Amino acid sequence: MNWFNYYGLAIMAVIMIPNIVYSIKHKDNDSDTYKNKIVTVAEQIGRYGCFVFMIFNIPYTYFNFWFDYALTVYLSVNGALCLAYFIFWIICWNKNGKLKALSLSIIPSCIFLFSGIALANIPLIFFSVLFAVFHIFISYKNS
After folding, report:
1. pLDDT 10s digits, 10-69
2. Is residue 124 part of a domain?
3. pTM of the shown model
4. Which of 20, 52, 104, 141: CA 20 to 30 A from 32?
5. Distance CA 67, CA 74 (A)
């Protein structure tokens, strides 16, 4: 992989599909009851940082796969996590509660963090930890 990660783009597209479909189907659903500007901004910084660094590899901050068969492991683990994400979306589509909130926030956090570690991508690791902490916290508070 050079500066552009096609696999990361595909993973991002896969995990965004149910989110886009859900937001189209539930336009009037405003379930964000937890309002803390600092926490929300930190989560958004983490989110968009993850989006960018899942797709773009910045030289000298990204060291590529660092073990044998890493691409196979990367695709297998992320594929399994994406499948789990879809399954939880299907199970929790019209439900609210802690199961939905935590599963749909922990799984993408794991995708980002695992991808950062597997690729030795320092910015992705940083932004995935930032995203995970605040996204899981906000999701839990809103459930």
Report:
1. 999 999 999 999 888 877 766 678 889 999 999 999 999 999 999 999 998 988 888 889
2. yes
3. 0.92
4. 52
5. 11
Structural domain includes residue 1: no
Q: How many helices (H) and strands (E) does the chain have?
A: 5, 0
In a domain, 107, yes or no: yes
The amino acid present at 54, given as its one-letter code, is M
For the four alpha carbons of 62, 112, 39 and 44, in that order, the dihedral sign comes to positive
SS3 120: coil
**Domains identified in the chain, total number:** 1
Domain limits at 119? Answer: 6-23+34-142
Q: Are 104 and 19 in contact (CB under 8 A)?
A: no
* Residue 28 included in any domain: no
Token pair listed for 133? 């902490």
Helix (H) or strand (E) holding 42: helix 37-55
